[in-house]
Amino acid sequence: MQMKKLTFLLLFLCFGYGAAAQVEIGLMVSPTISGNRFVAEDKYNFEKENNNLRLGVGVIADYFFAQNYAFSTGLIYRSKGSEFSYTGFDENQNPYRAKDDISIQYIELPISLKLFTNEIAPQTILYFQVGGSLNTKVAAKVNDKKVIDGEKTAKRFNIFEASVMLGGGTEFQFGESTKLFAGLTYHRGLSDIDNKYYSRLLGDKNIALKNNGVSIDVGVKF
After folding, report:
1. What is the topology classification, in CATH, of domain 22-221?
2. 63, 135, 136, 222: most buried, per Cβ within 10 A?
């Protein structure tokens, strides 16, 4: 009975908050310059060969709880990963050099705080954003292949990832309720994306791979 009362109370509070808050819904395109970071001993010589341009697209929602402050969330489809090389050792401990180009697709749930300035020019404001995201893997490829040696390459990577983000940009007011925005956001992966594949391959449980990226965020809000 107490649980039912608590549930009704939470629903009432959420409804009241939603009715009182100003909500802006938007669409965003977010191409990302994606890379990877590595935690491993020097003997494996993990090196990023290049950053890759990956796609990001989705919907966002800004819930204003004060004039210049908003809680921001949404659902974003984003591809991450880069090309990197590393040194492995065969059964006779002879070193060899290998290279992988990884591409992992996630559905992101961003959770952040946005701070808006007053107008810096007619119909123009700046915003700053800080927060994180909880991400779920939906697909993956290695060297542009979904299957290698009879095994799905998606299994090489963990299902969930957590990251932090820091960004900023500009909003332009068009008409009464339409806004265009453009900005830059830095995404830094916190969790290991390697599902023990590289750890088993190289025989070292202390190896970890993490995502990095900088996105160019362009979109419209209503």
Report:
1. Porin (2.40.160)
2. 135
